[in-house]
Structure formats: structure tokens, C-alpha cells
Automatic annotation (TrEMBL):
<dbReference type="InterPro" id="IPR001670">
    <property type="entry name" value="ADH_Fe/GldA"/>
</dbReference>
<feature type="domain" description="Fe-containing alcohol dehydrogenase-like C-terminal">
    <location>
        <begin position="187"/>
        <end position="383"/>
    </location>
</feature>
<protein>
    <submittedName>
        <fullName>Iron-containing alcohol dehydrogenase</fullName>
    </submittedName>
</protein>
<dbReference type="InterPro" id="IPR018211">
    <property type="entry name" value="ADH_Fe_CS"/>
</dbReference>
<dbReference type="Pfam" id="PF25137">
    <property type="entry name" value="ADH_Fe_C"/>
</dbReference>
<keyword id="KW-0560">Oxidoreductase</keyword>
<comment type="similarity">
    <text>Belongs to the iron-containing alcohol dehydrogenase family.</text>
</comment>
<dbReference type="Pfam" id="PF00465">
    <property type="entry name" value="Fe-ADH"/>
</dbReference>
<dbReference type="InterPro" id="IPR039697">
    <property type="entry name" value="Alcohol_dehydrogenase_Fe"/>
</dbReference>
<keyword id="KW-0520">NAD</keyword>
<dbReference type="InterPro" id="IPR056798">
    <property type="entry name" value="ADH_Fe_C"/>
</dbReference>
<feature type="domain" description="Alcohol dehydrogenase iron-type/glycerol dehydrogenase GldA">
    <location>
        <begin position="13"/>
        <end position="176"/>
    </location>
</feature>
């Protein structure tokens, strides 16, 4: 049976960050803890997002690591309790939003965080007691502001997913103004993350027609505007708005399920936390698209042809070569790495990555179930 559920209260436009105090009031937050990172603070984006609070801004935890960890969750929980907070406002990229969701669980539930991980059967253990979250993205990529999940590296080193409708942010404040100063390479990497969400969601064989429509529209917006946002992101407001929408739409859609791109990215990102998630997605997409092209659902529903149309390509063969090559060419134009080797990845990591990918929560929603040998071939093709 297919579950189709859209719940988040979304504000999207330039200047939307000014609505943050009233959104906190609307959901009943009187003393939120702000979760952010040092880079967002140093760039002045945190101050801009909190400008509406006047002279008494809420307490801030700004030590979110690039890949959120259970140790960072514990630090933030300690501050949450010290300050008597009753909710969380995440201001930053996907890492800050995921960390906030981890804090929402850990501050209100007993036991180690892995107890609540999806692959540990923990989703039903996440109760309505979770602290409410409001999300204010400062990048256009992860879409975590409208998603029910978070990815966190737990104490045993695994990069695990946590999923529950109780984790859905009570409000998403999508202000493209907060992304205008994002550096070109980070714009490109986070933008390809959003595009990967749209592509993988649409390829998944799970049933969710609204998600398919949202994903295709998001793909068209992102593909048409990512180069403009990367090249002239400080001036091109239209491109920034469209990329913010692409990001939001990709995450609204991926409740349907993702696939091998994210299984591999999660596993490799856990093995080497220095690697950027969006960049990994961009690198893995071509090999996974070629692998997925043989799936029965892809051919039956003409999904490759519909993807190619959304990307403005002239056509697409049944092997997915045109789409795969278009993505490789886009990565090159954006200045992203040509492959895993350029990112410092060696085959020595393959066995660990394959084991992680096979256990990842995205593995089973790929349109074609991958074997260990399939994952090895995709890794080799992505080098």
C-alpha cells in the first residue's frame, strides 16, 4: 500500500526569514535552541536569519560538524537542557538540520541514538515526545527542511538514517536571500544533491504519482538554473529562487524512496567523513543511471525518456547513455571532481563501502536491486 503524505508548513520567498519569530510562536516555541555551524555564523548568514529577533536572540549551538555525529548531538542536547529550551531552529545546510533532528530525538528519548535508526527498526520508537523543529536552509541541496529523515554518524562509526513523521519540521522557511553568498563550488555540490534527489525519486519503482510529478518539475528547475546559480549566484536572484525550489521539491518527493546513489554516498561518506555528500551523489549518478536503465519499471513507464525531456535533452537510448553523459558534462562545467579518484578515494575502501550500501535504508527502494558485485561495478565505473 502506498502512503502519500505532505505536512510541512512552507514559507518560500526572498525575505521569508523575517517570519521566523512568528513561526516559532505559531508552533508554540517560546525558547528554541538554534542549531547552526561556525561557517554560517562567520559568513553573517546566521545574524541575517535571526535579525527579526531584535536584541534578545535565542541561544545558539554553532558547532555542527560537516557530517553530523552522535557526539555533537550530545553536546547540543546538554546546551538544550541547560538553557531550558522547548524546541529547535536549524539554520544552515543539511548537516545543521540533521543535527537538529538528532537533538530532537536525544533530548526527549532514552538510550543511544542508534536505538532509533531506521535499519535498527527504530522508527516506531520515535514518539510524539520529540522536540519540535523549524528549519531555515542556507543552502539549496538537501531539502531536509521538508523531510522526515536525518543522517547521523553514530558512535560505532556507521552513518545511519533516522526516519519518522514526528521528525518532520513544523515549518520550513525557505529564503533564497540566505543562499546568495554561497561559494560557487558549494552551490554546485549542493545543487547536484538536489538534482540527485529528483532523479532518484523519479527512478524509484515505489508508487507515489504526486512525488513523481514534483520530482520531474524540480529536476527541470534545477537543471535549467544550476549553472547560472553557480556562475553568478551573488546577483542572479531568479536562479537562486529556482534552486531553492528544486531542493525543496526533491525532498518533498523523496519520501517515495531513493536508491543506489544514496546507498553508496551514505556508505562512502561514513567511511570517509571528509567527503561532501552532494559531490558524491553527482559522481555516482552516471553509473547508477546506466545500472537502473535495465529495470523493468524504468522501461515500462518510459522513465528515462521523461527524465531526458525534463533536462531538455534531444533524446535518450534505453541504456541511459545520453542522460549519464549529460550529467558527467554538467559536473565538469560546474567544476566538480571527475570521479572518486580525484576525491582521494582508493579501491581499498570498496569492501567497506559495499557492505554499508547493502545495509543502507535506500538500498531496497532502487528500481533494480543491486548485488555486491553490482555495487563494485558502480564504484569502479565512478573512479
Amino acid at each position: 500500500m502506498a502512503l502519500i503524505q505532505y505536512l510541512t508548513h512552507i514559507q518560500i520567498d526572498f525575505g521569508a526569514a523575517a517570519l521566523l519569530p512568528q513561526e516559532c510562536e505559531r508552533v508554540g516555541m517560546r525558547r528554541p535552541l538554534v542549531i547552526s555551524d561556525a561557517g554560517v555564523r562567520a559568513a553573517g548568514v546566521l545574524a541575517k536569519a535571526l535579525a527579526g529577533w531584535g536584541e534578545t536572540p535565542p541561544p545558539v549551538f554553532d558547532q555542527t560538524p560537516s557530517n553530523p555525529t552522535e557526539a555533537a548531538v550530545r553536546q547540543a542536547v546538554e546546551l538544550f537542557r541547560q538553557q531550558g529550551c522547548d524546541g529547535l531552529v536549524a539554520i544552515g545546510g543539511g548537516s545543521s538540520m540533521d543535527l537538529a533532528k538528532g537533538v530532537a530525538i536525544a533530548a526527549t528519548h532514552e538510550g543511544p541514538l542508534k536505538t532509533y535508526a531506521t535499519i535498527e527498526g527504530g522508527s516506531p520508537r520515535i514518539s510524539k515526545a520529540v522536540a519540535p523543529v523549524i528549519a531555515v536552509p542556507t543552502t539549496a541541496g538537501t531539502g531536509s527542511e521538508v523531510a522526515r529523515g536525518a543522517i547521523i554518524i553514530v558512535d560505532d562509526g556507521r552513518k545511519l538514517g533516522f526516519h519518522s513523521w514526528e521528525l518532520m519540521p513544523k515549518a520550513a522557511i525557505c529564503d533564497p536571500e540566505l543562499t546568495m553568498g554561497l561559494p560557487p563550488l558549494l552551490t554546485a555540490a549542493t545543487g547536484m544533491d538536489a538534482i540527485a534527489h529528483c532523479l532518484e525519486t523519479f527512478m524509484s519503482a515505489a508508487v507515489n504519482p504526486p512525488a513523481d510529478g514534483i520530482a520531474l518539475d524540480g529536476l527541470a528547475r534545477g537543471w535549467a538554473h544550476i549553472e547560472r546559480a553557480t556562475r553568478d549566484g551573488r546577483e542572479d536572484r531568479e536562479a537562486r529562487w529556482q534552486m531553492m525550489s528544486c531542493s525543496m521539491q526533491g525532498a518533498m518527493a523523496f519520501q517515495k524512496g531513493l536508491g543506489c546513489v544514496h546507498s553508496l554516498s551514505h556508505a562512502l561518506g561514513g567511511a570517509d567523513p571528509r567527503l561532501h555528500h552532494g559531490t558524491l551523489n553527482a559522481v555516482f549518478l552516471p553509473a547508477v543511471i546506466r545500472f537502473n536503465a535495465q529495470a523493468e519499471s524504468m522501461r515500462r513507464d518510459r522513465r528515462l525518456a521523461r527524465i531526458a525531456h525534463a533536462m531538455g535533452l534531444a533524446g535518450c537510448d534505453e541504456a541511459g547513455n545520453e542522460v549519464a553523459e549529460a550529467i558527467k558534462a554538467m559536473n565538469a562545467r560546474l567544476g566538480l571532481p571527475s570521479g572518486l579518484a580525484a576525491m582521494g578515494v582508493t579501491p581499498a575502501l570498496f569492501d567497506k563501502v559495499i557492505a554499508g550500501a547493502m545495509a543502507d535504508h535506500c538500498h531496497k527502494t532502487n528500481p533494480r536491486l543491486a548485488t555486491r558485485e553490482d555495487y563494485r561495478a558502480m564504484l569502479e565505473a565512478s573512479m
